[in-house]
Amino acid sequence: MPASSRTRTPGSPRAERPGRRRRWALRIIALLRERYPQIRLPLVHRDPFQLLVATILSAQCTDAMVNRVTPVLFERYPTPQTLAAARLRDVEKIIKPTGFFRQKTRAIINMSCSLVERFSRRVPLTMEELLTLEGVGRKTANVILSAKRLEPWGRGEDRADGLGIVVDTHVRRVSQRLGLAATDDPEKIEEQLMSIIPRQEWDSFSLRLIYFGREVCTAKRPKCLTCPLKRLCPSAPFLGNPPWMRRRRRAGRVP
User: Fold this and answer.
1) d(C-alpha 58, C-alpha 62), whole Å
2) Does the domain made of 16-38+165-248 have the CATH classification 3.40.50.1390?
3) What is 48-150's CATH topology?
4) Which residues are involved in binding [4Fe-4S] cluster (predicted)?
5) Binding residue per annotation — 61?
6) pLDDT of 149-162, one tens digit each?
7) Which residues are part of the catalytic machinery?
8) What are the structural domain ranges in the chain?
């Protein structure tokens, strides 16, 4: 068969036409929407402030653990004012189970001080402003901006300045396996996903990919044989460990 007539599977290292990748992405979105018709953030919260604190605490920690810690934290420090005035050691005792508790304590207290001093005790809802807060990177900011469109407290808020796609460890892994991203860099993955995922799907797409990564496309033993996306997934024949991801892992190792 001539090389020009061969069908290339999306996800291979070679470049493909953007139109084809977008059509591929739409098929994946449709199947994910069918599997997860209703989506909600896994971090328990009542308002943007609580979600912001919980998201910072979730770094290198499971959502289940964060959800066990935050009720105690928010009962004692329910507002930016109260958390800004908290003593470091008192907060450290509460959030210690989340790991890296000293750094996280400083981050959420300093973030709360910024909300009080610069934002009238309200969480800003633009990417530019969120990134000025202690402990907030693009992933955390995208969680807040996406939640604004999904959660009851965000109704009536039409602004989504700087909204992107949340790229956590699940989104990074699954998007690579599905051939939707061709890099290990989270910011580049976000750019690649934003170029093929319709804007109106950005907030829900990342959540569905996170659900899918936890339930089916797991890190160590992905359920490729029973995966509902296996006919669309170029990694399925490799049981979730395709050669292009192996090459990236080797290239990223430091001698």
Assistant:
1) 6
2) no
3) Endonuclease III; domain 1 (1.10.340)
4) 217, 224, 227, 233
5) no
6) 767 666 545 445 66
7) 139, 168
8) 16-38+165-248, 48-150
